[in-house]
Design a protein that fits this description.
The protein has a two-stranded antiparallel ribbon with strand order 1-2. It has a two-stranded antiparallel sheet with strand order 3-4. Mean pLDDT is about 80; it is low at about 570-575, about 590-610 and about 650-660. The two termini are about 20 Å apart. By secondary structure, the chain is mainly alpha-helical. α9 (about 165-200) packs across α11 (about 220-230), α18 (about 380-390) packs across α20 and α27 (about 580-590) packs across α28. The relative contact order is 0.10. It contains 31 helices and four strands. Keywords: Calcium, Calcium channel, Calcium transport, Endosome, Glycoprotein, Ion channel, Ion transport, Lysosome, Membrane, Repeat, Transmembrane, Transmembrane helix, Transport, Voltage-gated channel. Pfam families: Ion_trans. One of its GO terms (cellular component) is lysosomal membrane.
């Protein structure tokens, strides 16, 4: 009947608006049962369960044999790693597989059979589950003694397929690969040519004393390639050229030319090319997200205009304000946005909304999240008003920063004076006395600010919450120190009294004081701009972090699969466990480069067949340091430059706090989709039949 149809239209509009809010595709089933299932699937509970399942199945690698997860990595001190019994981790895996089967079944049903065959990600999802479950059965049939487990390598796919932003990022990376490949090929040519030059230049001679360069670094082609590849990372510089340099200083020209051409030119050229190819990625992605949002809002308008009580108009469809209010009551959205839309709706004098008016109402979703701070208390007493003015003035905050700086300087002076002293020779009186002066000041400063601003306004500023929390912690630690050891006095060294070390407590207090000095950041405009921009980048670059986790997890599992060590014939893989932490070290630190070189030398010294292990380490170096880091730098530059330009030109408002997302960064350069584009896309919807 008409009432059932109206309920269906209302529910369709609710779902389409929620799709627009979350930038989801609207190409799914729109019948009553499917809409109920769709909302349940995207509820916080279901998505939390799915995220938890993905986290659990990825975390299994830390406890499965041959993982060596222990408190310390030093083989001399660590205890044997816990080896779970056969069937324990497999049972957890089975539960995870059941959740994934339910997930892919619901997704496949909701998009429909025709759309399913067009969705390569869903087909890959099903194939991954089939292969993983088959491998799981094989594992149980061998009583968990098999050396190769394919499903471990496939596990990161579950994280990848669950994020639409990660899929977009991966697609963009894939489109950038041809340009990157050309530079990597040029890098390989550079490496090969200099390898041949090195083998000719440092050939073996009759004098063994003069052949150290040949013996250690350039004995054959694989060794020569390895030495120069590691030199490209600067890990073995200047060790690699010391024997030749000792023989003749002119040999240094060869190594200088190789490093300058490889590091300064080719590696930076790779960064420039990747940035040039990748800089439009975010803009295209956000443009696509904007289109999805506008399409979802327009779809909601079209279904609401089909309500039976809506007056028909031959010229233009309309939606009644009452129907929209009914929809807004059911939609799950930010309360700020909902209240703003309801206010605009009440201020509207008309009873019906056109498509343009309807779309304009929901532009509230695109606006900055503005947080206004509560007002300060109004005191009647003239004396209190003067105190409020004095302690609420920015200069009072500047005075607090000066005091904090004086505290840091005094701590540094004491630490420098006690640097060479034995623990028994140290006198903690000075540090204790310093804390007795500064910590009460911090407490007094906090209380006076609360008096001037009011508690609600004081807590509305993140910097004040940070400052107040550290002040309370410092006060508690100081009281605990006095309660255990008494007040500071000359020769105050009671660290051996009881179980609690005074030196540890004093050191903790002073570390917090140093940390508290970060309060100066909001008072320095450009430093605050840089820090807030970086924090926003951390929040908005989750897709890249996710792909890094996928890559790191996959490559960390490979050495645990007995593949490399079986080829190298060096015994159990537990002695050569390459975990995610090790790979992150390889990615970000100089010590990682040293580990790369040391790992290769160790493997080469065991057996010549161990040269197969080079493929693994070189692959990780190419993927992480050469390609991935440059991609991240490119995206970081684009984000930073865009946000820097926008924030520098925006007037600062003291009582208003702006919270921007990556979708809002490019708002001024995005193109609004036209009426024709939206209607054409809606008419292509596989499950929605429009009346016009």
């Amino acid at each position: 009947g008409n009432e059932a149809d109206n309920d269906l239209y209302i529910n369709q509009a609710v779902v389409f608006i929620e799709d627009a809010i979350q930038y989801r595709s609207i190409n799914h089933r729109v019948d009553s049962k499917s809409l109920w299932l769709y909302r349940r699937y995207y509820s916080r509970t279901c998505q939390w369960i799915l995220s938890l399942t993905i986290t659990i199945i990825l975390a299994l690698a830390f406890i499965e044999e041959p993982s060596s997860l222990t408190v310390t990595s030093d083989v001399r001190y660590r205890l044997p790693a816990w080896n779970p019994p056969c069937g324990l981790t497999e049972s957890v895996e089975l539960l995870c597989f059941l959740v994934f089967v339910a997930d892919v079944s619901v997704k496949s049903y909701l998009i429909g059979w025709k759309e399913f065959w067009k969705n390569k990600w869903l087909m890959a999802y099903i194939l991954t589950l089939i292969v993983s479950f088959t491998d799981w059965i094989v594992s149980l049939s061998f009583f968990c003694t098999e050396s190769l487990r394919i499903r471990r390598i496939l596990r990161p796919f579950f994280l990848l397929q669950n994020s639409s932003m990660m899929k977009k990022t991966l697609k963009s990376i894939n489109s950038t690969l041809p340009e990157m490949a050309s530079v990597v090929l040029l890098l390989a040519v550079h490496l090969s040519l200099f390898t041949m030059f090195a083998m000719l230049l440092f050939a073996r001679t009759k004098d063994n004393q003069q052949d150290k360069e040949w013996m250690v670094y350039f004995r054959n082609l694989p060794d020569s390639l390895t030495s120069l590849l590691v030199l490209l990372t600067t890990a073995n510089n200047p060790d690699v050229m010391i024997p030749a340099y000792s023989k003749n200083r002119a040999y240094s020209i060869f190594f200088i030319l190789f490093t300058v051409l490889g590091n300064l030119f080719l590696m930076n050229l790779l960064t420039a090319i990747i940035y040039n190819q990748f800089r439009g990625y975010l803009l295209k992605s956000v443009q696509s997200s904007l289109f999805r949002r506008r399409l979802g809002i327009r779809a909601a308008f079209e279904v609401l205009s089909s309500l039976k009580e809506t007056p028909t108009n031959a010229q233009q469809p309309y939606v009644s304000t009452g129907a929209l209010q009914q929809v807004l009551q059911k939609v799950e959205m930010d309360s700020r946005c909902k209240q703003a839309i309801m206010r605009s709706l009440k201020m509207c004098s008309c009873d019906q909304l056109s498509a343009a008016q309807f779309q304009k109402l929901f532009e509230e979703l695109d606006k900055d999240a503005i947080k206004q701070h509560p007002p300060s208390p109004e005191y009647q007493s003239h004396f209190m008003q003067k105190l409020q003015f004095a302690f609420g003035h920015p200069y009072f905050g500047y005075l607090g920063n000066v005091v904090a700086l004086a505290n840091i300087i005094s701590i540094c002076v004491v630490l420098v004076m006690d640097a060479d002293k034995q623990p028994s020779e140290r006198d903690d009186f000075f540090l204790g006395a310093i804390n007795c002066f500064f910590i009460p000041y911090y407490l007094l400063e906090m209380l006076l600010k609360i008096l001037a601003m009011g508690l609600r306004r004081y807590l509305s500023y993140p910097s004040n919450r940070f400052d107040g929390l550290l002040t309370v912690i410092l006060l508690i630690l100081e009281i605990a120190t006095f309660a255990v050891y008494g007040f500071p006095h000359p020769g105050w060294r009671p660290e051996f009294m009881g179980l609690l070390s005074l030196w540890d407590m004093v050191r903790l207090v002073n570390m917090l004081i140093v940390f508290r000095f970060l309060r100066i950041i909001p008072n320095m405009k450009f430093m605050a701009l840089v820090v807030t921009t970086l924090l926003d980048l951390v929040k908005n670059l989750r897709a890249f972090a996710g792909i890094l986790v996928v890559t790191c997890n996959s490559l960390a599992v490979l050495p645990m699969q007995h593949l490399i060590m079986a080829l190298c014939s060096v015994g159990p893989t537990s002695s050569w466990n390459i975990g995610p932490t090790t790979l992150m070290t390889l990615l970000i630190t100089f010590q990682g480069k040293m580990f790369f070189h040391g790992a290769l030398l160790h493997l080469l010294s065991v057996n010549l067949i161990c040269r197969w292990a080079k493929i693994y380490f070189v692959a990780w170096w190419l993927i992480s340091s050469v390609i991935w880091v440059n991609l991240f730098v490119a995206l970081l530059l684009e984000n930073f430059i865009h946000k820097w330009d926008r924030r520098c030109h925006r007037a600062s408002l003291s009582d208003i706090e702006y919270q921007r997302t990556v979708e809002l960064m490019f708002r001024d350069v995005l193109e609004e989709p036209t009426e024709e584009e939206l209607m054409e896309k809606l008419h292509q919807h596989p499950h929605l039949q429009l009346c016009r």
